[in-house]
Design a protein that fits this description.
By secondary structure, the chain is mostly beta strands. Among the domains are: 75 residues, Carboxypeptidase-like, regulatory domain (Immunoglobulin-like); 296 residues, TonB-dependent receptor, plug domain (Ferric Hydroxamate Uptake Protein, Chain A, domain 1), CATH 2.170.130.10; 42 residues; 241 residues, no CATH class. The protein contains 11 helices and 51 strands.
Length: 1005
């Protein structure tokens, strides 16, 4: 009975409690109402992603792409509206069911959102070294490639052209070079997908670029971040539908021809006669012929291979948002004629970025990008050990015309002088090189807010990159046509699972945790055949008539599994601390060495006490960071022995084909590690009109993945080892200021400057230097570069030129087999010529100065950049000086003042080395890269919101330099000649940078 009473007592309390809760709930249900609202910016445009929270609760929503929202709230509630860069507003609900709120910018809180990888951060909360480049900084420059937009705009980032050819390669380096035999390219991440290619992207698609420079910033990408990271965010649509069209056409030309004796063929003929007499041969030209050359000139082959290039570029985009859907669609067509005859590049690209807010918690985005690029006679594919076609044109016989009296090509010099190569005009006009690149990239981005504090993001993407080559060359190794086919197919996919938890405690302690699990897979399939000595020289499709075939195939696959955890703690908006750990496992290394752990930590502190009491400073922050990142930069099967084929005759008769080792196995190979320390300071002043950031850093790259040579006694070739150390030290400076700021006239200036000092600290087995792989042209079999301990990467190798042997030194000259008039070089005590470092091709200082000036509807952009403290190995000048290899005649204009017994100058009259300090020149330069002026018409044809802009611009308008070649920024390298960074600044007939004049029109409606 007692138990029964207790049961009913408990049941009664339960029922009463339940009735109370139901009644309370009904009361609340009755009291609450659905509030519909719109949040707009200062211009009346809807703000997507603004936060609306019922004050004192966790009940909150975010606005859709048009700034609309719905939320359940009581009439006594207060809605708190916040969005980064705008003042937070508290709006009482009262009797309102529809609310329209216009947000106002808050100068005190306005802060750029920076993409830092697997998330974003406010600029003021950054602890790492991150450089930002927005689309606004290059929108007034008609750039055709994204890497051009980076040049000179991000401190610590060096951008240099490999050559001036259409579609030509551009080298990007972040805070110097790390590896001697590995790859120094930075990692490119496009919308979260790793491994992008800047050269294929449409600049019009770019919203912003973020460059992660120090280890605390790059450690989140682990093994891939060792050379720095470039994060590319493409545009998303918002607001009303908009159409933008940008069309420009350009005229390009060679800024200046190089002066040679082809400009005065009579002098060339006289000097050629002297050369022939000096080697005991009869003169080539008669006095009558020389007189004819003086009167009529000869053939200027620079004029024959260079032309005016006409290019066009069309960019179209369609963007906006509709309800919960936002979109950005774009297309780009680019057609560039080269300034070298029969060269060019065409590209067609399309992009579709679609994002849908499915629910308040779920957002899905799909990005698809495709491009088709086609090179016409890719200039980098021409040339051999005798230099490029530009070098051959500069060294070709100016007394032999392009065509003979029958209208046929003169294939060679009719007199057997100057360059012995095939007529360069014939090579360019009759060769047919077609390089085609097809790229398709697709990205899926799913974000789900599990709670107000906890979210999950899936980033999945795949890339297919096909590079197809079909080449018909009129000049093969045996002076017969050849045909080449090559197909290089890369496929890549990535899946990233990203978890983010963020919470603020007691309004002072802000904690964000980010966890990542990531998997990526990359495959490469390579097929090639070469058809040698075509019997029917009628093009590529007659390859089956070749006298011989060579076939090559290859397959590679690599995988990477990664885990990352990042913690960010911010105290009272003053102190920020970021700690990251990444654990990478790669298929490249053997078991036991596959996994590497790479940590980093960084802190930043805002000195509010100083700022608050200053009439000048608006921001003062100090930063410091330390971290490590790894590098797996060896071939997929770099830990295994590699075999090649060779032929050997055992009895002096028929050769037997067999295998040979071309790379030795090293199962102990493991990670190369880069440890970096960074200290920085950020200043804002004059009420936000100016900003200054200075970063000082040191990078130590240890356990280098180095290809070390194996002695011939042990089989020769190389083995991959973890040996050697490289060190980089430097400083990055970024300065920006709104010099003039009023309603009608504004002038904004930005300077980015970097200084990097590089040093090879150690190599292997106590070696102090190793020889490079860049071989001098002319058949002299000498290497132009070396790597030396205690010196920077990029040392140039050669003899020290001391002028000429004079008549008074005849006896000393005879002792070493020379006569007066010969080139004189530094020799050792045994009389042997001393070869060693004679310069360095790696700039230490680079900078860019960008100015944007607006006056009412006019705008002016001036961009100047420069590089300093480096040398160029002017092998082009060496080749026109002649006297060796297949360029046997003197064509240098200063040869008219060569040594004679009566005029004992320091210009040799006989054979000399290509690789000597005579051809080392200072490469420092300052370039006016862009000058653009435009005028914008608003509300065209009385249509509100329409704009029409007309603009004109010039690129590479002037170049200040002491370099005597076409351009000191360019360098030459063939793929088999090693890492580009250990042989920079070598000019073997580079394709010149053009001077370009552009006219364009932009329409927006």
């Amino acid at each position: 009975m007692i138990m029964k009473k207790q049961f009913f007592k408990v049941l009664g309390k339960f029922l009463l409690t339940g009735i109370f809760l139901i009644c309370f709930g009904l009361q609340q249900l009755y009291a609450q109402q659905t509030i519909t609202g719109t949040v707009t910016d200062e211009n009346g445009q809807g703000i997507p992603g603004a936060n609306i929270v019922v004050q004192g609760t966790t009940n909150g929503v975010v606005t859709d792409f048009d700034g609309n929202f719905n939320i359940e709230a009581d009439s006594d509630d207060v809605l708190v509206l916040s969005y980064l860069g705008y003042a937070t507003q508290n709006v009482p609900v009262g009797n309102q069911t529809t609310i329209a709120i216009q947000m106002a910018p808050d100068a005190a809180q306005l802060d750029e959102v920076v993409v830092i990888g697997y998330g974003t951060s406010r600029r003021k909360d950054l602890t790492g070294a991150v450089a930002s480049v927005s689309a606004e900084s290059f929108e007034n420059q008609p750039v055709t490639r994204v890497d051009e937009a980076l040049q000179g705009r991000a401190a610590g980032v060096s951008v240099a052209r490999a050559n001036g050819a259409p579609g030509g390669g551009i080298k990007v380096r972040i805070r110097g070079v790390n590896s001697i035999t590995g790859n120094n390219d930075p990692l490119v991440v496009v919308d979260g997908i790793i491994g992008g290619d800047l050269s294929t992207l449409n600049p019009n698609d770019i919203e912003n670029l973020q460059v992660l420079k120090d280890a605390s910033a790059t450690a989140i990408y682990g093994v891939r971040g060792s050379n720095g990271v470039i994060l590319v965010s493409t545009k998303k649509g918002s607001g009303k539908a908009k159409v933008n069209v940008n069309y420009f056409t350009a005229i390009s030309e060679v800024p200046d021809f190089l002066p040679t004796l082809a400009d005065n063929v009579g002098d060339f003929a006289r000097i050629e006669n002297i050369r022939k007499l000096s080697i005991g041969q009869n003169p080539t030209f008669t006095d009558a012929e020389i007189a004819g050359f003086d009167a009529n000139g000869g053939t200027l082959y620079q004029d024959e291979i260079f032309k005016t290039g006409i290019s066009e570029n069309l960019q179209i985009s369609f963007s906006g948002s509709e309800g919960k859907l936002r979109y950005f669609l774009s297309g780009n067509y680019r057609d560039e004629e080269g300034i070298v005859i029969n060269t060019g590049y065409q590209q067609l690209s399309v992009r579709s970025n679609i994002e849908a807010q499915i629910t308040d918690k779920l957002k899905i985005g799909v990005n698809i990008y495709g491009s088709h690029g086609e090179w016409k006679n890719n200039f980098q594919s021409f040339g051999n050990g005798q230099g490029s076609l530009v070098a051959k044109a500069l060294t070709w016989d100016p007394t032999t015309p392009v065509f003979d009296e029958n209208g046929d090509y003169n294939r060679r010099s009719t007199r057997g002088i100057a360059s012995l190569n095939l007529n360069p005009v014939l090579t360019l006009n009759e060769s047919d090189f077609q390089d085609i690149q097809k790229l398709l990239n697709a990205t899926l981005n799913v974000t789900y807010n599990i709670t107000n504090n906890f979210s999950y993001q899936l980033v999945a993407g795949t890339t297919s990159n096909d590079y197809n080559v079909q080449r018909y060359a009129v000049e093969g190794p045996n002076d017969t046509p050849d045909a080449i086919f090559r197909n290089d197919k890369d496929t890549f996919f990535q899946v990233s699972n990203i978890f983010t938890w963020q919470k603020v405690f007691n309004e002072k302690h802000d904690v964000t945790l980010t966890g990542v699990q990531e998997y990526s897979n990359q495959k490469n399939v390579f097929n090639r055949f070469t058809a040698n000595d075509l019997i029917l020289p009628n093009g590529y499709y007659f390859a089956e008539t070749a006298g011989g075939f060579e076939i090559g195939n290859n397959f590679e696959e690599r995988e990477l599994q990664s885990y990352m955890l990042r913690a960010v703690y911010t105290l009272d908006n003053n102190l920020s601390i970021t700690a990251t750990g990444r654990y990478d496992g790669t298929s490249v290394f053997r078991p036991g060495n596959k996994w590497g752990f790479f940590p980093s930590i960084a802190a930043g502190y805002t000195l509010n006490s100083i700022v608050d009491n200053s009439a000048f400073l608006s921001n003062l922050k100090i930063r410091a960071g330390w971290g490590q990142v790894g590098n797996q930069g060896v071939d997929t099967y770099g830990t295994f022995a590699n075999l090649g084929t060779n032929a050997y005759s055992y009895d002096g008769g028929t050769q037997v084909t067999g295998s040979e080792i071309v790379g030795f196995a090293n199962p102990d190979l493991t990670w190369e590690t880069t440890t970096q320390t960074n200290i920085g300071i950020d200043l804002g002043f004059n009420e936000g009109r100016g900003n200054l950031s200075v970063d000082v850093f040191q990078k130590d790259i240890k356990d280098l993945l180095l290809e070390t040579p194996v002695t011939g006694f042990n089989g020769g070739d190389f083995i991959n080892e973890n040996v050697g150390t490289v060190e980089n030290q430097g400083i990055d400076v970024t300065f920006g200021y709104d010099i003039i700021q009023n309603d009608n006239f504004n002038w904004n200036a930005n300077l980015a400057l970097s200084y990097v000092k590089n040093e090879v600290v150690s190599l292997f087995d106590g070696l102090q230097e190793i020889e490079g792989e860049f071989q001098a042209p002319g058949g002299q079999a000498r290497r132009l570069n070396i790597i030396q301990v205690g010196q920077p990467i990029g040392q140039l190798n050669g003899a020290t030129f001391l002028g000429t042997w004079k008549s008074s030194e005849a006896a000393a000259a005879e002792a070493v087999g020379k006569v007066p008039g010969d080139a004189k070089y530094l020799r050792d005590g045994d009389g042997n010529i001393v070869f060693g470092a004679i310069g360095n091709g790696q700039p230490t200082t680079t900078w860019g100065f960008n100015n944007t000036i607006t006056y009412k509807n006019w705008d002016l952009n001036i961009f100047i950049n420069g590089s300093h403290d480096f040398e160029v190995y002017n092998l082009t000048r060496a080749m026109i000086t002649g006297g060796a290899g297949d360029s046997r005649s003197f064509l240098a204009s200063d040869q008219v003042n060569q040594w004679t017994p009566s005029n004992e100058t320091d210009i040799p009259a006989t054979v000399q080395f290509y690789n000597s300090s005579r051809y080392i020149e200072k490469g420092d330069f300052i370039r006016l890269s862009n000058l653009n002026i435009g005028y914008t018409f608003n509300n065209v044809a009385s249509l509100e919101g329409t704009t029409l802009k007309l603009y004109a611009s010039g690129q590479n308008l002037f170049l200040i330099t002491d370099y005597s070649g076409y351009d000191p920024e360019l360098s030459s390298r063939r793929t088999e000649q090693g890492n580009a960074d250990v042989a920079p600044g070598i000019d073997v007939g580079n394709y010149p940078n053009s001077r370009t004049f552009t006219l364009g029109i932009k329409v927006g409606f």
